[in-house]
Specification:
Helix content of chain A: 55-70%
Oligomer: homodimer
Radius of gyration of chain A: 22 Å
């Protein structure tokens, strides 16, 4: 439905099996057979997940023509990281307010730490 | 289909309209009518998007009983940030390798900066 790259990346990651495949690939290249093993999944089922990850640009095929190993391409994840940036400021601000509040509490009750 | 909280958050964000709604709410509470305005969308269409965001815990309803303003809850975004952490190390490593490579190039060609 949505075809912008950030939406495609987020949709591709919205599945625990696909995130597990990425985690495996973050430790090095792997063939589809190797990727299927830990999930007790069929070859077609893993291939389907890989296709979604490939379309999002998160996984690419290695050079070996026979084993066609897959490798992780982290670039689309940076796009998410960049998108998160403005919200990071938001939750940092929340944390700062909490810290200020705690400092006010401590000043208002100097013996608080001894209770 | 998937019901783990991280998958629900990622799926909720995999839509440009829903991300735009969040961006609007990051500047402060807004009623459904106010949220619908910039998108030229019907009230039910916006309500549907809000429901997805609410289920993911990204949006909550404010206290005002009449206007039922919506507000952003950034906590689920921290979960994505935490998930990204291990991959961040991966792309930082890529950048470090590139930097080392550039340093090697500069050493091999000390006058490179004067060209």
């Amino acid at each position: 439905m949505t075809t912008d790259s950030l939406s495609m990346t987020l949709a591709a990651l919205a599945d625990p099996t696909r995130r597990a495949i990425l985690a495996r690939l973050s430790r090095g290249e792997a063939s589809v057979t190797e990727l299927a093993e830990p999930f007790a999944m069929s070859f077609p089922a893993v291939s389907k997940h890989l296709k979604v990850l490939e379309r999002a640009g998160l996984v690419a095929r290695g050079r070996d023509a026979q084993f066609r190993p897959r490798r992780l391409q982290p670039e689309p994840l940076r796009e998410i990281d960049k998108w998160l940036e403005s919200y990071r400021a938001l939750w940092d601000a929340r944390f700062d307010r909490l810290e200020t509040y705690l400092q006010v509490l401590q000043k208002g009750d100097p013996d608080g730490s001894h209770n």
